[in-house]
Specification:
single chain, Rossmann fold
Length: 661
């Protein structure tokens, strides 16, 4: 029986904690424990306060003290699991939850928490089973329904995930995490307008959450909703300057400021994917006859990245390199999966494996150089590299910018996308390839179908400008340039990708607001890739976006013989099309100002002979220029691997390296 004084102090500590007054709550618990040093409940609750104060080592010690006093204390074991999860010691967190369940099999909270930990370990089937157990024990448990939704999303069972998340919201209407998860699911389903509304609700609950503001902003960009966009971009930039955690990927499409992009990536990496020392250092291995190179991606199927990479992978010198593929995306047995998986010495499906275990497996495979093909794009797993999956870690192709992580040693680039003198804008050391950093596949199929203007909705006559970039890349400044170009070229139209109906409506509205007949915007629905390539031949000139250029989309256009006009900025993402044009022998189509971009577009449209010269040059260069020579890119990339590996074997730190042609 506790004395009235101890009980009063303890009750006050609990109340202060519930009110969010952590410092005073902690002080009260300290007083309680001076009077009652063996009060297990106070030790456990003190651990919870310390956990919320981010003092995790002290929190764990406090909870362990509670357990040493009372080994069967279920609440303490639960708190211990939460602290260990925060510390990323997931195996131990899971063991603590299993202890709770052994003590109390009917604890729906423990089953729900077990689901969350297993989900972070990427053991998704087991996580779903735990979530189902939690809701069967307590059907009104909102966190269990939400955790179930998270797992179903990772399993790509998105409609079920949405229903589960909405069940959580029905039970707890202001449940922040559930609203955030609902927004992500709606985005996955490309229900962008609903996603934006959902994120508005989330931000009303937590206005200062910059990560969710990034999701909200991206949803707005996906539907081309530019209402007060300058203010929103300004808010995003201010958050980055204040070292707040923002999503790096949407920022690439909004800001042409490499220093800010680096800061955004670094803060995000530090907060979400800090370096983990759990697996210890990688022992230095002696060089062997064959270097083992691992490629890590969620996109080893019919996907833009694999379309680019296929021939390069096939062209690797098997006498000098052993290739390992680590696939953590959907197991789609489509054409590109079958083609690229056959290239690898070992192709491993790791989608159901934790980041730590993938890193451990990579070490066991003896990977010398690990290539991250995802960066911070959809489906990425930076945690694999945070654990250290190889002695040399490189990011390539998937993400056009720095990852801001001190465990990524190199970024593969060229002198156009990362010009000399801008190395300080990258955490990684630079590997400069001699032509374009971007590989391409000279075997890429173009449908033999001959499209007519009528069947794709184009007018019978008139100049056709096009841009098949995703709609989120279209900013008002780019659009205004397009409108001025159309006004200057009578009878011309702009052919765009129909990404979603709301974007179509908004872009037509924006055209009308600028005094242009909205009917001059023509929208193309999605087609199979080979047919999409074929229909592009109906266009006359591809107009690029900025600050985020066409990347694979620009290569697609050039591959079918369609000239691309770009405006080059300062960031990697804003210089990709310039890299491609340089490597295909069309540097005259690179501009560096909006005025020059508009003037050249108008000039080419009004002088068809001049434009025809670019078409002919592209036709002549397409099969001989470096851009579409996958084998040549493979030789240059291999030379870079040998150079960075030689430095490692010599005990030298990473350094900028240039590969000669």
């Amino acid at each position: 029986m506790r004395s009235p004084k101890i009980k009063a102090l303890y009750d006050q500590a609990v109340a202060l904690y519930q009110a969010g007054r952590l410092v005073k709550s902690l002080a009260n618990y300290e007083q309680v424990l001076k009077l009652a040093p063996n009060f297990a409940g106070a030790h456990a609750d003190r651990g919870l306060v310390l956990r919320d104060m981010k003092r995790l080592d002290e929190a764990l010690a406090s909870v362990d003290k509670a357990i040493s006093i009372e080994p069967s204390y279920v609440g303490a074991w639960n708190i211990r699991a939460v602290v260990l999860r925060d510390m990323r010691r997931l195996d131990e967190a899971l063991a603590s939850l299993d202890k709770v369940i052994a003590l109390n099999p009917a604890s729906s909270q423990a089953w729900s928490n077990r689901c969350a930990v297993l989900a972070e370990m990427n053991q998704l089937d087991a996580a779903l089973a735990s979530a189902n157990k939690a809701v069967s024990l307590q059907s009104n448990r909102a966190d269990a329904w939400n955790n179930r939704g998270v797992v179903l999303r990772e399993l790509r069972r998105r409609v079920e995930a949405l229903a589960s998340t909405e069940k959580a919201i029905s039970l707890q209407p202001n449940y922040f995490d559930a609203w955030a998860n609902r927004g992500q699911l709606l985005s996955d389903l490309k229900r962008w307008e609903e996603a934006a509304v959902c994120y508005s609700k989330v931000l009303a609950l937590k206005p200062d959450d910059e990560l969710l503001f990034g999701h909200y902003l991206f949803a707005k960009m996906a539907v081309c909703d530019w209402d007060r966009l300058d203010d929103k971009i300004g808010k995003c930039a201010a958050a980055i300057r204040a070292k707040k955690t923002t999503l790096p990927f949407p920022v690439l499409s909004l800001l042409d400021n490499p220093a800010l992009l680096k800061s955004a990536a670094k803060v995000y990496s530090d907060a979400q994917y800090p370096r983990s020392l759990a697996l210890g250092p990688i022992p230095r291995r002696s060089a062997s006859n064959k270097m083992r190179v691992g490629y890590y991606s969620a996109d080893f199927h019919n996907h833009a990245t694999t379309y680019l990479m296929a021939e390069l992978l096939e062209a690797h010198d098997a006498a000098r390199f052993e290739l390992y593929g680590f696939s953590f995306g959907p197991s789609q047995q489509d054409e590109m999966r079958q083609r690229v998986s056959a290239v690898f010495e070992k192709f491993v499906e790791v989608s159901g494996t934790s980041d730590a275990n993938i890193a451990r497996l990579s070490r066991e495979c003896g990977i010398d150089i690990a290539i991250d093909l995802k960066g911070y794009t959809v489906g990425s797993r930076p945690g694999i590299f945070a654990h250290g999956c190889a002695p040399i870690q490189v990011q390539y192709l998937g993400y056009p910018g720095t990852m801001g992580a001190d465990y990524i040693d190199y970024i593969v680039a060229d002198r156009t996308v990362i010009p000399p003198g801008s190395q300080d804008d990258y955490m990684e050391k630079i590997v400069w390839l001699p032509h374009s950093y971007q590989p391409n596949d000279s075997k890429r199929k173009i449908s033999s179908k001959v499209f007519t203007r009528q069947e794709v909705g184009l007018p019978k006559s008139g100049f056709v400008f096009c841009c098949f970039n995703n709609n989120y890349k279209i900013l008002p400044e780019t659009f205004e340039s397009w409108m001025r170009i159309l006004k200057a070229v009578d009878g011309s139209v702009l052919w765009l990708l129909e990404d979603n109906p709301t974007a179509v409506k908004n872009l037509r509205k924006e055209a009308a607001a600028r005094g242009l007949d909205a009917g001059r915007l023509i929208f193309a629905g999605r087609l199979p890739p080979d047919e999409h390539l074929a229909r592009q031949r109906l266009a006359d000139l591809f107009l690029d976006t900025w600050p985020c250029n066409a990347h694979t989309t620009a290569s697609d256009a050039l591959w079918v013989g369609l000239p691309v006009l770009t405006c080059m900025g300062k960031s990697f993402a804003s210089r990709v099309a310039a890299s491609l044009l340089s490597a295909v022998g069309l540097p005259s189509l690179i501009t560096s100002s909006r005025a020059d971009y508009e003037a050249l577009a108008i000039d080419l449209a009004l002088h068809p002979v001049k434009l025809a010269g670019f078409w002919l040059t592209l036709e002549d260069n397409r099969t001989v220029a470096p851009l579409f020579d996958g084998k040549l890119t493979a030789r240059h990339l291999e030379a870079s691997y040998e150079a960075i590996y030689a430095r490692y074997q010599s005990g030298l730190p990473p350094e900028n390296i240039e590969i000669s042609s």
